[in-house]
Amino acid sequence: MAADAGNGRFFTVDPLTSASFGGRISLAETSTLDSAVCALESSPALLVQALYDAGGLLYLSGLNEISTEPGLLTRLSHLFGPEVEDYEQTLTERSKIHPECPQILQITNMPPSCQMPPVPPDPPLTAAGGLPVKFPHRRGWHTDQSFRRPPPDISLFYAVIPSPPGQGQTLYADAAGAYDALPADLKATVEALEGIHAIPGIGRAEYAVKAGETPKPLLPHQWPQRQPVVRTHPVTGRRSLYLCEAGQMDWIDGPFVGMEPGPEGDGAKLLYELMMHITQPKFTYVHEWSQGDLLIWDNRNLLHCATWYDAQNHQRLMWRTTTRGNPGELYSGEGRSWLPEDDARPMTGL
């Protein structure tokens, strides 16, 4: 990774020291963040290329101005794709949408949204005393909105009020590096395989099927969607494993097309094997959040995972945007599976 990315005029980038992928961006000195964003907008391809060169993950710190000027986040988001999702148009609950910028999803335990974090893993630490990252000890690994066709490209995640140190970390896994390291026989197994991805909270996740829950009736824009298990990046050409684990796959008809379905089927065994491979510590990065941090990642070749924080005693407010526009040739000419009809209504889990 070049240390003088952007020719040094707009930013420099250095490798993340605690991971085999990812880059830390240092913006050139300007009077305001607005000036820095204007400079990036004048040559938008530079930051995008830095993302690809870094394996799909960029980290910027000290961007505190975004918390009072949320439009800066949407402007940065537009550098990475022609479209930034407007959550008002996709039936997202109003309480989760930023009141001034409908392109910003608010992820917080604060009213009126009151979203709770995932439960901590059991046991809370590894045998060596570290933070668990490997599935199934660590649950919740996914890629954003994989239950849509075409799925999104890039996500941006910003810390307005982070959780306390040592809590609420976000974990990332390099699914391209994991694919490269697959044994030849497993590569052959997954080559033409499709996964069935489902919206969380509709009764089709592993835990729901095991508990005997009745799946919810779905409108067309909520139906599970097939995605290739091996996905080729439309820009870099690298192949990666495009998967989620238990909560975002369809465990009634899947998790894989053409394999024995359900939690006890052959498909479940394969998914567990693949997820355990992808989430090995050598393929992961753990981000400890500070106020003003911004992480940018490529959903086409990275997985990520939220972690527990003490939501009873600490407030946390994070902003997320999602861009789309280049899912790859596989999706060429497709309509958007996830656009609701005029009379559709929001549902829990979206």
TrEMBL record:
Q: Which UniProt keywords apply?
A: Dioxygenase, Iron, Metal-binding, Oxidoreductase
Which stretches of sequence are listed as region Disordered? 328-350
* Any one GO molecular function term: metal ion binding
Q: Is the keyword Glycoprotein in the record?
A: no
Please list the residue ranges annotated as the TauD/TfdA-like domain: 45-322
- Identify the InterPro entries for this entry: TauD-like_sf, TauD/TfdA-like, TfdA_dioxygenase
The transmembrane residues are: none
Family recorded in the similarity comment: Belongs to the TfdA dioxygenase family.
What is this protein identified as? TauD/TfdA-like domain-containing protein
Organism of this sequence: marine metagenome
